[in-house]
Specification:
327 residues, alpha/beta, Quinone Oxidoreductase, Chain A, domain 1, Rossmann fold, 2 domains, 29% helix, 27% strand
């Protein structure tokens, strides 16, 4: 038996509870992991509260991230005792995830835990930091350099935004952070933001083309914000789009793309091939200032995650929420 958060839906409604779960209930997979840490992401908040239908079958253990130790393995790449981590692959939506003390998984979804990270540190980074690094790799692939000008980061107080600012700043870029929370300006400056702008300047309907400002953009917001960011990106700049906090719509025109040669790079963090995942995590080990992890993240116990979920969705929690599944 092990503890986990179980989301279920029946005639009495939708509920998420911490339960004792039998090992026999674990789904199919060729690697069983003794989980030590997981996280609470936006998707996990949706899964726990039921406010959006991200859970595709019931019952479900949420948790799109996990780190832990291999307990048993039939996969050639992993043996008992190996330290591993996982991001994505629909875990926590269609396959039981990390917000439990055990997980049984497809070994192809795992990567070895980089030696630079403890399990807790890896989960402080989690999908958010990993996604931010995928965005930076896309900018670099398109030749964006610090000398070309400012990089805009939207959704700056969220997990992706926080890591994007920290990483870009350390790599020498001048970062402009967009946020609607004036109380967090000091936090964003400590991460490395050179300037902070009000998200309201980007979140309403805008023009097909605006004055050129950004050499590049990392956007986790979508909708009008993404459209306006594209409209004000410099000629031949790159916009990395990785989220939809404002909405899934994209009320834009083709003007930035055909008149200025702007590239819109979509970032899929869920099903990246293993080599790309390892590349991103190795870069995180090199480029992240680990001293910032305590600023960006805080830790809670498994029993606290259910109450924290609606606060996360309401934007009341800063940065990353790491979950110690054993307390």
């Amino acid at each position: 038996m092990f503890k986990g958060i179980l989301v279920d839906k029946d005639d009495s409604g939708y509920q998420a509870t911490v339960q004792e779960i039998d090992d026999d209930q674990l789904p199919e997979g060729d690697v069983t992991v003794r989980v030590t840490y997981s996280t609470l992401n936006f998707k996990d908040g949706l899964a726990i509260t039921g406010s959006s239908p991200v859970v595709r079958k019931f019952p479900m253990v949420p948790g799109i991230d996990l780190a832990g130790t291999v307990e048993s393995s039939e996969h050639p790449d992993y043996k008992v005792g190996d330290s591993v981590l996982l991001n994505g692959w629909g875990v926590g939506e269609g396959h039981w995830g990390g917000l439990a003390q055990k997980a049984r998984l497809n070994g192809d979804w795992l990567i070895p835990l980089p030696k630079a990270f403890t399990a807790a540190q890896a989960m402080a980074v989690g999908t958010a930091g990993y996604t931010a690094m995928l965005c930076i790799l896309a900018l670099e692939h398109n030749g964006v350099t610090p000398e070309q000008g400012e990089v805009l980061v939207t959704g700056a107080n969220g997990g992706v935004g926080s890591f994007a600012i920290a990483l870009l700043s350390r790599l020498g870029y001048r970062v402009v952070a967009s946020t609607g929370r004036t109380s967090e300006h000091d936090y964003l400056k400590r991460l490395g933001a050179s300037e902070i702008i009000d998200r309201a300047s980007l979140s309403g309907p805008g023009k097909p083309l605006a004055k050129e400002r950004w050499a590049a953009v990392i956007d986790s917001v979508g909708s009008h914000t993404l459209a306006n960011a594209c409209a004000s990106t410099k000629a031949n700049g790159t916009v990395a789009a990785c989220g939809l906090a404002q909405g899934m719509d994209f009320p834009a025109s083709v003007a930035p793309f055909i008149l200025r040669g702007v590239t819109l790079a979509g970032i899929n963090s869920v099903t990246q091939p293993k080599a790309k995942r390892i590349e991103a995590w190795n870069r995180l080990a090199e480029d992240l200032d680990f001293d910032l992890l305590s600023l960006i993240s805080h830790e809670i116990g498994l029993s606290e995650a259910i109450d924290a979920a609606p606060r996360l969705l309401a934007g009341q929690l800063r940065g990353r929420v790491v979950v110690d599944v054993n307390r």
